[in-house]
Write a structure and sequence with these properties.
heterodimer; A: about 120 residues; mainly beta; 7-stranded mixed beta sheet; 4-stranded antiparallel beta sheet; B: about 110 residues; 6-stranded mixed beta sheet; 11 strands; about 50% strand
């Protein structure tokens, strides 16, 4: 099953440290999305790539957050100088251009705990 | 401002019963309404979706009812089974728009009692 893969699945870090998450999308999907989900809430959009181009960023994505998708394949989401409020599940999703914007395939997420 | 409001927050249904989850949206530009199902420790998975040119869509035991004038849509799960126990999210988006058009509700935690 070649679904969306995310690593690491869990990350515990101390406040002020940097963390990086990786997402490997479904191979034929050229669109890749990052969402954040906190307990009791639905996923909130963070950013979106089409191939290697980052096309949209949410206002939720502060300057401490950066995402890349070199060569239009896997993507990384880095959080610098983590804060306790960054504790959440970070979800990656992918889709194929031509599918509806709502037909996303999500990974299992990377859970971040900031102490 | 929450653009998609979902209710109830939690729901307990007996096995074999009908589970009903409601959503209301504010932005009339939304034209695609998916429902996602999420099990603990997993990412959301697309369950069923509807466009506003139809009032109902059925896939197996899952039905979406859509009321464009009221800006409301609902998910009905017929003959609910314990395996349906999960969190359900409604969402709304622009089918021809960008990614940030996908707006989720806060979710409904559904428990099906055997």
């Amino acid at each position: 099953d070649t679904g969306v893969s995310q690593n690491p699945r869990h990350k515990i870090t101390k406040r002020g440290q940097n963390v990086t998450f990786r997402c490997d999308p479904i191979s034929e999907h050229n669109r890749l999305y990052w969402y954040r989900q906190t307990l009791g809430q639905g996923p909130e959009f963070l950013t979106y790539f089409q191939n290697e181009a980052q096309l949209e960023k949410s206002r939720l994505l502060s300057d401490r957050f950066s995402a890349e998708r070199p060569k239009g394949s896997f993507s990384t989401l880095e959080i610098q100088r983590t804060e306790q409020g960054d504790s959440a599940m970070y979800l990656c999703a992918s889709s194929r251009f031509g599918q509806g914007a709502g037909e996303l395939f999500f990974g299992e997420g990377s859970r971040l705990t900031v102490l | 401002q929450q653009q998609v409001k979902q209710s109830p927050q939690s729901l307990i249904v007996q096995k074999g019963g009908i589970s009903i989850i409601n959503c209301a949206y504010e932005n009339t530009a939304f034209d695609y309404f998916p429902w996602y199902q999420q099990f603990p420790g997993k990412g959301p998975a697309l369950l069923i979706a509807i466009r506003p040119d139809v009032s109902e869509k059925k896939e197996g035991r899952f039905t979406i009812s859509f009321n464009k004038s009221a800006k409301q849509f609902s998910l009905h799960i017929m003959d609910s089974q314990p395996g349906d126990s999960a969190t359900y999210f409604c969402a709304a988006t622009y089918s021809g728009g960008g990614a940030d058009g996908l707006t989720f509700g806060k979710g409904t935690h559904l428990i099906i009692q055997p």
